[in-house]
Amino acid sequence: MASSAPHNPPFRAEHVGSFLRPPHLLAAREEFKAGQMNAARLRALEDEAIAKVIAYQEELGLQSITDGEYRREVFYADFYARGLGGIAMSHDPEIDQTFFIDTSGKKIPIPQPVVNGRMRWHGPIHVDDFNFIRAHTKRMPKITIPSPTIIHLRASRKNISREVYPEIELFWADIVDAFQKELKALAAAGCSYVQMDETTLCALSDPAGWERLRRRGEDAHKLLYEVYPAIINRALEGRPSQIHLALHLCRGNNLSSWTSEGGYDPFAEMLFNRLNVDSYFLEYDTPRAGSFEPLRQVPKHKTVVLGLVSTKFPELESKDDLKRRIEEAGRYIDLDQCALSPQCGFASTIPGNLITPEQQSAKLRLVIETAREVWG
Questions:
Q1: Closest CA to 164 of 121, 112, 122, 116
Q2: Whether 256 contacts 101, CB under 8 Å
Q3: pLDDT (0 to 100) of residue 43
Q4: Between 239 and which of 183, 188, 194, 274 could a Cys-Cys bridge form, CB atoms 3.0 to 4.6 Å apart?
Q5: Does pLDDT of 83 surpass 80?
Q6: pLDDT of the residue at 3
């Protein structure tokens, strides 16, 4: 279909980063939370499980290797709560609630972050994670980090303490500083592949998101087109040139449910031409993501990883259907700029999606086989 060119990273067959946790690791974390296991023992069990998930990725044939996010309960929590501090999670019904939604329409409330202290970078957050991966593989380690905008959208100004942050610019300055320092620390350790998981932009492609922000007294248009792009670019300013920065756009992923819908059309020009990132992981597994037409705006020097395989549902996609959709994308972008992956991780939150380990493996093998047949 397309002439082959080196993409490393992203590789022709990719994945977003998180994997289903083994049951014994889930049980160990519960014991730890109940005070029945110490931190050293939990860490040892995590190390053992991560070594196995690294070997699992290698056996499948993946070229980028993560730790499966096995040390995290929620994809963004380690960076913010453990790394920066100043955050508590609230289930207060008075806060304008957002929800995960599944195919039956069932709603799962999303805990809201409340910023009650300064969010400061005190030292490397994911460097130890990178070093552990590197020590256990000869392939390319990939570190996943959250977006710098996620706390603001989820908390709202109402839940960012005015005593701590009387001016919102101080809040942004602390977050930007943290991202800049973390990326430099990762690069100093030898990391060359970082994926930023971004949930805010897709949330603002959904009219329901604009209405929620209006009720909160926020200007959705200004956030989508001015504030958030500027903050992402500021967070990436001065990043070492060795780091390939991939941006994964997500519409929510928890227990096979999601938070938003809407295509990339409303912000495609900004996304592809104003954000200073190298490649994009784009969700395209359901009609909720819209059409491939916005890919017209991707510049020639950037790569798009097409997230055509769902991590949410057990049904295995047809290889012929995947090839047909890749061809369809090729009407709008040179396929040599493309790669293939699942649309999201298999366990962005600790319970994971409602599929089995065998189904997870089948999905990943399908991605690898299809990519090999399309790109060689």
A1: 116
A2: no
A3: 97
A4: 183
A5: yes
A6: 40
Q: For the residues 299-311, what does the mean pLDDT come to?
A: 96
**Radius of gyration, alpha carbons of the chain:** 20
DSSP letter, residue 245: E
Sign of CA dihedral 90, 92, 98, 99: positive
Distances in Å between the Cα of 169 and the Cα atoms of 148, 175, 177, 181, 309 are 13, 10, 12, 18, 39
Domain residue extents for the chain: 60-375
Please give the Cα distance from 317 to 52 (Å, whole number). 26
Q: Cα torsion for 126, 132, 133, 135, to the nearest 10°?
A: 140
Pairing of strands 193-198, 143-146: parallel
Task: List beta partners, residue 249.
Answer: 198, 282
Amino acid identity, residue 70? Y
Phi/psi-derived region of residue 355, left when phi > 0, alpha when psi is between -120 and 50, beta in every other case: beta
Q: Is 15 exposed, middle or buried (0-12, 13-18, 19+ CB in 10 A)?
A: buried
